[in-house]
Write a structure and sequence with these properties.
By secondary structure, the protein is mainly beta. 13% of the residues lie in helices and 62% in strands. Strands 1-2-3-4-5-6-7-8 form an 8-stranded antiparallel barrel. It is elongated and about 55 Å long. It starts with 7 loop residues before the first helix and ends with a strand.
């Protein structure tokens, strides 16, 4: 069952929105005299995994604007590289993040990412390659202690034939300073 259908216009609209959001942030000015920057927090995640003929590298820097103790909104960039034997894929993209803390230690999250995926299936299928856009929408819940949140999230748009993740459920650790 396909929940959402994205075409080129949707991608351009999303990228335009993301670009204008960044431009409006930078037009606010820099320095301690501007209260906007005192509410911006930076963080994200980084991971490296190794196994028997397996390598996986993930980097996802993020920035959020903390409106108050309960709400934060931001964006991220994402890069993922994996090699499994002769097969490999690269995925990169950007996303929009929203966090809600009804109480200090409980966080609900919503994260939309639009990823560009390039796959090759190695020596067994040298001519088999795929390039496609992959929308990902995570809904999650986590426990927050200081700048660290850990929990679980679920990809609502999960497609087992296209997803770069093995399962729609994914544990996470998130850090913002």
């Amino acid at each position: 069952m396909k929940l959402l259908h994205f075409n080129k216009r949707h991608y351009l609209l999303f990228l335009s929105f993301l670009g204008s959001a960044f431009m409006s942030c930078f037009s606010q000015g820099y320095g301690p005299q501007n209260p906007f920057w005192s509410q911006v927090r930076f963080g994200g995640s980084f991971g490296v995994g190794f196994g028997n003929n397996v390598v996986n590298i993930v980097a996802a820097p993020s920035a959020i604007y903390q409106f108050n103790d309960h709400f934060a909104l931001g964006s991220n960039l994402s890069f993922n590289y994996a090699k499994f034997g002769d097969s490999r894929f690269t995925a990169y993209g950007a996303g929009v993040l929203g966090y809600y803390n009804p109480i200090r230690s409980l966080q609900f999250s919503s994260e939309f990412e639009q990823l560009r995926v390039h796959r090759s299936y190695g020596n067994d299928f040298p001519d088999l390659k795929e390039d496609y856009w992959l929308p990902v929408l995570f809904m999650g819940v986590g426990y927050t202690s200081g700048p660290v949140t850990f929990g679980i999230r679920y990809d609502i748009l999960y497609d087992e034939n296209k997803s770069i993740y093995a399962d729609p459920w994914m544990p996470f650790i998130r850090v913002f300073f």
